[in-house]
Amino acid sequence: MTEIIRLQGVTKQFRSVRALHDVSLEIQPGVTGLLGPNGAGKSTLIKILLGLLKATSGSGTVLGFKLGTQSREIRSVVGFLPEDDCYLPSLTGVESIQFAARLCRLPAIEALRRGHEILDFCGIGEERYREVETYSTGMRQKLKFAQALVHDPQLLILDEPTTGLDPDERNAMLNRIRMLSKRHGKSVIVCTHILPDVQAVSDSVVILAQGRVCVADSLQELSRPQSPAIHVRTIGSSVPLAERLRADGFSVEERHHGELAIAGAEATAAVWKAAEQSGTVVRSMTPARNSMEAIFLDAVQDTSRANS
Amino acid sequence: MPIHSEGYRGWDGRRAPGALRWAVIASTGIRRTWKSKWLRRILFVAVLPTLFLAIPIFLFEQAIRDPQLWRGVVSFLQTLPQTESVGSVFSIDPLTATPEEINEARHQVWAYLLLTLFRYPQAILMVLTIGIAAPPLISNDVRSRAFLIYFSRPITRLEYILGKMGTMFFFLAMITTLPAILLYTVGVLLSPSFDVIVATWDLPLRILLASVTLMLPTTAVALMFSSTTSESRYAAFGWFSIWIIGYVTFGIVMVFAAASAGQLEDPGWRSLLSPYHVLGIVQEWVFGLATTESMIAPAAVILTAVTCVSLGILFHRVSSPMRA
């Protein structure tokens, strides 16, 4: 698989502040979550990818185009949803989308047709003739998504795409991202602080901390615990089951709400047997996974420790 | 989801030429600015001086062929402002003048009337038009953080600024170039013969040059003001201030000069204090009617310097949100 983004030793220095330290990275097609605490360098990295900022040193490519020298080509094939609340005053929704499309060189009529189509796709078709200044925060968020998508880019960079959306709309937005990636082959970089969003849609994760890449791997790989285990939830008390399993020689940890974590990938059959013997009803049994929170906190804390 | 929605569909159509991206910004700016009622009223009013100034052209052309009219036309022309640049015309006797002398007089009178159009009614309308149209052009983008919408697309700073300037050029052309070309055309149509074109062929070119002389510095200054604030009213205040302060300063200096000399003085270097007079000096030169030759170079240098500094600030301001 060819990587969509390849960075080699990218550093960005703002006078006395070094925003990015020697960032080397390869991002594969699919949905990638870009995470990091505030000030980690995410926005700087996005601006460098879009050619809005020049890296102090280092090199890289985005969709095969060179950073620094082919910024215009990069921006032609990338759609960007900024975190900031930005809009074009005194234009209606559809005019605003048409304008964004024409800036990407879509012919005027085609830009208008495509604008209507994308507004429907993004769920703001009913508001197409309203001036964008009158839009709610959520509507503006969807409008920005539509603007990023209108020229059918190969890569979407979405900075906090679910900010300002209610739970239903947030799910709808995540579904759109998932669908664009799975059905239409778009690559998406989702930059957010909402970790469940990343877990819901991402194939891989990049975590930045203090301007350095501290994690870059597939979500599947990251979610896998260091030692295999299964999590078991029961209806009623889980204590008899835990005691039975301990008696059978398994290592059992009692977690919150009575959930049991049983070490060993081969424990499934033993759990069923122990449940039958102890008269416990099993509600669910799932392979243990590292949570996104745990992955994020571990990565950020490791970097802090390494730098202190 | 609407019944006609077909979900997401890709697009692989043919893209428009990239060289005209600035024109997309300009046309959108024109559409947005056109919504101002006051601006539309000004554009309507801008045509009226053309009709008024067509009368002297018509009378002049008739008087050349009808000497009985000549004295009346000369008297009428002398009532217009600053006629010293065409003073030699008044001494001509159409009965005895050669065709070359007549053609020279025609050229001078037409050029003078076109300059009058630029200097008086259209200058005031220009200040008003820019004061209404230019301040929101960039300050609204600053306020609504629209820079990210532009620059995350294949648009350069130069194209952005060209687009904004294009918007202003359109409206300025509507109130200066277009009425002047209209006046010239009406003059040709009201003349007894199309031979007048031979004597005045250069005037349309001078109109274009005078328009550029007017548009470039004024647009650069107005957009510079617009880029320095997120409140368009402050930009408008800055724009009107430079014209009012310049004009008032010039007036005060002239009053003091007249008081100390005991008579009205030639403005000389004092004209350089007022943007209105600086523009006037260069436009007089463009129409071949300069009365103060020594002031042309300093005035041109001032206009060039103001344009360059304004564009420099404009470029800096437009790129600063990207650096943040």
Describe the structure.
The complex is a heterodimer of chains A (308) and B (324). Chain A folds into two domains: 5-223, P-loop containing nucleotide triphosphate hydrolases (Rossmann fold, 3-Layer(aba) Sandwich), CATH 3.40.50; 229-287, Alpha-Beta Plaits (2-Layer Sandwich). Chain A is 39% helix and 27% strand. Chain A has eleven helices and 14 strands. In chain A, strand 4 and strand 5 form a beta hairpin. In chain A, helix 3 packs across helix 4, helix 3 runs parallel beside helix 5 (137-149) and helix 9 (239-247) packs across helix 10. The mean pLDDT of chain A is 90. Chain B is an all-alpha fold and 324 residues long. Chain B has one domain. Helices cover 74% and strands 0% of the residues of chain B. Chain B has helices at residues 21-33, 37-45, 48-65, 67-78, 87-90, 99-119, 121-143, 147-151, 157-190, 196-200, 203-227, 232-261, 275-286, 296-323. In chain B, helix 3 (48-65) runs antiparallel to helix 4 (67-78) and helix 3 runs antiparallel to helix 6. Chain B is globular, with a radius of gyration of 24 Å. The relative contact order of chain B is 0.12. The interface between A and B is large, with 45 and 42 residues.
Average residue-wise pLDDT of chain A: 90
Helix content of chain B: over 70%
Q: In which order are the strands of the major sheet of chain A placed?
A: 6-7-8-3-9-10
Number of helices of chain A: 11
The helix-strand sequence of chain A is EEEHEEHEHHHEHEHEEHEHEEHEH
- Number of E strands of chain A: 14
The main sheet of chain A comes to:
6 strands, mixed
Biggest interface, chains and residues, is:
A-B, 45 and 42 residues
Order of helices and strands of chain B: HHHHHHHHHHHHHH
Percentage of β-strand residues of chain A: 25-35%
CATH top level label of the largest domain in chain A? Alpha Beta
Distance between the termini of chain B: 39 Å
Number of domains of chain B: 1
What percent of the residues of chain A sit in helical stretches (DSSP H or I)?
25-40%
Radius of gyration of chain A: 23 Å
